[in-house]
Design brief:
Strand content: over 45%
Largest sheet: 5 strands, antiparallel
Distance between the termini: 80 Å
Structural class: mainly beta
Number of helices: 0
Radius of gyration: 32 Å
Shape: extended
Number of strands: 33
């Protein structure tokens, strides 16, 4: 039994410690008294039952062996186990019928769950938290494994302040992207650590004020346990950036190798649109959101084609777009508004002007000398 957050947990069943269910379950018809036993395995305990609104079917939560399983049945006495579903009742009702009375909403344990690693990582300041203190190193990355009773181990010592928000784990092994920031120069250094092998090498560095050269940040994807890791294609990581230029932002998606090799620009927003990579579907497709000064935002599948010759900073693959959504402009007349500056002279000779926005034909300016509250129209 584990005492966790005010609950007593049975780690074998993933249920509440000391809670038992009913044995030898049976159905009894009220009108006739007819009894029908339910064919459940010996030693099973029925923890709860959830009936459909018509009273003809039910779902059972059944403790058996090392899990709480899900069974469904009907008033004729037939029952069936839903394989591969292990329920988790610790955080709320584990089984509920949805409004259509055909489907069930369940709290389940992910398939294949096992020991998800028990190692704690944290950052310690080596300068007492004083950013102007003269020290050879400002931070260090530490770790401690279960049962958390030994001495912590230093994993990495940083010359500058470690930025936790600029760090991300790799999908496999002990790969960790770690960022440190030099406060005076406003410079960011990005390292690749192998926390299992105890190695570290600088991946790249950048001037924080150089928005045009900003490489962006890694795209992430969830693991089966819900934790986020860098989204990779083999030994390369997808990077998404805002793509600042003198003519405005042009977001991009890069494929940056973890080892040697050049970064490949897979996608870049068209110059006359604002297109943002949202997610990667597979090696050759991604989801983007696209809009322009006259088109409302919509989502597209961007299919990456053959390699093409491209100028500096442009995508190295051809792109075709297929719409996912077809959202229409809710106020199309607003797109027709034209802005014009109207200049005129007040009666006392002072020149005035205002910006007029209108659709269609613009009426001539008001007559000279028109006044409103001491200010020109």
């Amino acid at each position: 039994m584990h005492k966790l957050a005010g609950m007593r947990v049975d780690p074998k069943l993933n249920g509440f410690h000391g809670r038992h269910g009913g044995t030898s379950p049976r159905l009894v018809r009220v009108d006739t008294g007819e009894t029908t036993p339910l064919d459940l395995p010996a030693g099973s305990e029925v923890h709860d039952v959830s009936w459909t609104a018509d009273g003809l079917r039910f779902a059972l939560t059944v403790g058996q062996g090392d899990q709480i399983g899900l069974w469904v049945g009907s008033v004729d006495g037939q029952v069936k186990k839903i394989e591969t579903v292990a329920l988790n009742p610790l955080l709320g009702t584990p089984v509920e019928w949805l409004p259509d009375q055909q489907r069930l909403l369940v709290r389940r344990i992910p398939p294949g769950r096992g020991p998800a690693p028990h190692t704690l990582y944290w950052v310690e300041a080596l300068d007492g938290g004083d950013p102007v203190a003269e020290v050879p190193h400002r931070d260090r990355l530490m770790r401690l494994g279960k049962p958390f009773s030994g001495e912590p181990e230093e994993v990495f010592r940083a010359e500058h302040r470690i930025q936790p928000w600029g760090s991300a784990w790799g999908a496999e092994g002990g790969t960790l992207m770690l960022s440190e920031r030099e406060r005076i120069r406003r410079w960011r250094y990005v390292w690749l650590l192998d926390v299992d092998a105890g190695t570290a090498r600088r991946w790249f560095d950048l001037d924080e004020d150089d928005r045009y050269g900003d490489p962006g940040f890694p795209l992430e994807r969830p693991l089966a346990n819900g934790k986020m890791v860098m989204h990779q294609q083999g030994d390369a990581v997808y990077f998404r950036g805002s793509g600042a230029t003198a003519m405005g932002d042009r977001p991009f998606l890069d494929l940056r190798p973890l080892g040697e090799g050049a970064t490949e620009r897979l996608f870049r927003s068209a110059p006359d649109r604002y297109e943002v990579p949202i997610a990667v579907i597979d090696d050759d497709r991604l989801v983007i959101r696209s809009e322009s000064s006259v088109d409302v935002p919509n989502y597209f599948v961007a299919a990456l084609g053959d390699t093409t010759s491209a100028g500096a900073g442009e995508a190295m693959r051809t792109v075709t777009r297929e719409p996912i959504t077809h959202i229409e402009d809710p106020a199309p007349r607003l797109r027709q508004i034209e802005k014009r500056i109207v200049r005129y002279e007040r009666a006392d000779g002072v020149p005035l002007s205002f910006t007029l926005g209108a659709t269609g034909h613009l009426a001539p300016p008001p007559p000279s000398g028109a006044r409103r509250g001491g200010r020109g129209w």
